[in-house]
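User: Modeling request: complex.
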Amino acid sequence: MRPRTAGAVALIALLLWLVAYPLVLTLVEGLRADGAWTLEHVRAFLARPTELRALWGSLWISVASVVLAAAIGVPLALLFARYDFPGRRLFGTVVALPAVLPPLVGVIAFLFLYGESGFLAHLVRHIFALEEAPWRFQGAGAILLVHAYSMYVYFYLFTRAGLASLDASVYEAAASLGAGRWRTFRHVVLPLLRPHLAGAAMLTFMTSLASFSAPYIFGGGFRVMTTQIVATRLNGDDGLAMVETVSLTIVALVGLWLLRRTDAEDVVGGSKGAAPRPAPVASGVLRVALTSLSVILAIVLLLPHFTLLLVSFVPLGTWTTEALPPAYSTVNYLTLIHDPVRARPLGNSLWMASAATAAALLVALAAGVLTVRRRAAGARFIELLIALPWAVPGTVFAIAVAAAFSVDSPATLRLVLVGTIWILPLAYLIRNLPITGRAILAGFRRLDPSLDEAAAMLGAGRWRTLRRITLPLLRPALLAGGTLAFVTAFGDFVTSIMLYTYDTRPVSMEILSSLRQSDVGVAAAYGVVLMLVSAFVFALGADRGSAG
Amino acid sequence: MPADPRYLVLERLSRRFGEVVAVDDVSLGLEAGEILALLGPSGSGKTTILRLLAGFETPDAGRVLVAGEDVTRLAPVSRHFGMVFQHYALFPHLDVARNVGFGLEGRGLSDADIRQRIHESLALVDLSGYDTRRIGQLSGGQQQRVALARALAPEPRVLLLDEPLSNLDPALRERTRREIRDLIHRVGTTTVFVTHEQDEAFDLGDRVAVLRAGRLEQCGTPEELYEAPANAFVAGFVGRSSAVPVDIIGASGASVRIRIAGVEWEIPNRPGERPEPGPAMLHARPEALWLREPGPDAVPGRLTGRRFTGGGAVFQVTFADGHTLEVSAPPGAAKPGDQVGVVPSRRAGGGLHLFPADAQ
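Assistant: Request completed. Predicted assembly structure:
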């Protein structure tokens, strides 16, 4: 009994220090100035219309992103789950591709594609012989477009999963009761899908509330709270930045709470049968139309990837007014390889993401052993702490970590880590906890506890049981959580921009500085590298995970 | 206190979970090589006793002794017990040989020895040549045998079986019961197993411990339980029986006079007992009663049901006061609605039991 309690206490202490303490310090520092308690920063926050506008901007952009992503993802899911036509499989493989673009890479791909000096603008200018760029890709519209592109996937996948869990007999029962297609959908399918839709809405809302790359690159004069926080912080107004951080956290938690409430009213879809097979489309015209639609969709979805690839082969300064780049070479990639200064970020990102992922997996494993296996006291608290970083936007955590670990005060458990090589891996670790935690706790729950007991009866100690039984059986969960965590950390931008130093600059910061120097080719080449590593790691996870 | 000579001793074990007393002062003992069945309805504490023996639970009071050694506080790892789990708990990522060999690792055995023992264990359960099969490729019966081989391979001091047959087809169960019993007797391992099925307990167990609500009701051979149940619960739970209220008129040596629905019967008395006159409950096995034409010694009733059992039939006879007894007779002896009489059979000794009227 005693080691179990000691383990739980140690883990809770570690999580409190990593996850809760920085957030509490942020709250405290928002309420302090010159060593005294004050509402000065809060008053400053409320007095500035820009602050409330930014908060409102975050909120409505997030709600609009949910609506847009649902409007695209749900009909597509219904279409591709229920109807069979040529091209269905093509779309099925292409649909997840927005996910292999880390946020910043997706954003620069959009910049190269739809931006005012992007691929599309070049083409239009050339065709219509325009002097100026035909449009400016900026503001709320641009942000929403990026969000819709990258987040409809949540609705698509969740709806597909929901439809797959609906037994064919549900439709048959509705039909036998005389319900037409629309009535069946409205009164049977949709209510049964609600938990899945709520899950997708929650994910989309939280992701867009935390979204930083798109507003940062495309926002122009339009501010959301994440970019506002970074701007305030760069201005050196730390107290105000803390209040902004707290305000965004509150919006996130309220949103989460509201969505959880709809989710909590469980719909029992108790059916074990198989989902109906997609029905072949009989009408020839309709079939052609649907096939064309899926081809167009595939092209639209892949355009950012292609653009990125194309731009990465364009040498610096060769593409001016032509419709298509006139010259191609591998010079940008060679720069990455041969220039040690420019190659460094790749190595940095690799080791920092690997270390953070490994540490997050270890914490998740410890949590799994303590909460699921040994049902230690405080199990629910451990799970809450592990999930907390998910509920709080990345910018908030970056600020909180920056605040907590920039003071040398061992007595209050604060160290100076900002400016050292440890701060980014630590921040990535915290952000990875919900990802690895969710995967591994679910993995532990799927394991039959009597397997552990069987190993014990056969004389295997705790360590041998972990090594020989638990870990091999957890492999799918470890791979799933590990790959997702690695990819997230590897492409991270939002935490890095607040905490990086020159020596630990990650790939995302190198992309940004290349962009600033108008060296788009190198930025694109780095984007391609990020994209390929993400795709590779995902493929590895999917492959090994399913084999295990 | 002199040392208990028996090999495995459960000494006044108690375990409570919050308000619930799962195991209440249970004492049992097994001779070396003996098979004991823990029989009881769900919630009777039989599984908790097994888990106390395995070491997954620690008793609040009492001790577990193996060959005189107190193992009560010993971790499961150190007990050298073997266990077959209800759902087998085979390691799905290891093949059959690695499952069986798992308990042989880390004991200083050479690889050749381990291979030899795996080979022997698989031969024992008739699965020679299955070494490299994956668990998912095996049928339920084969998985059960692999689980048994895995538990026996390290030559455990005590073998524990948790509802070992509940996941098998009914047809397979009966055959497997006898196979397991023969196997265990051949190997000679002292065994405790849990079941809620009387057939299983009787077929597999040398002795059977009947449990209810955490308490040990009776422990004995199947014959003892059947012919001399210690109380009404055991009489009802072990084998079929029906009960009606009677009045005890008086006992005289080998027999007792009772009045049942106005008719007087003389039934055999249990040796050494002297029932007090007064109200009591008569528990009767169907085969301890006979069906007759209505007559002076027979309790009159109406036949209200019949259940065909193959060789014979069990008839339900409802008396004028509404109580019902079950009587076995040839299938064609009577038909529902007939007025019949019930008398004790001539060799009813083992099948008629009197218990106090207020007891459950």
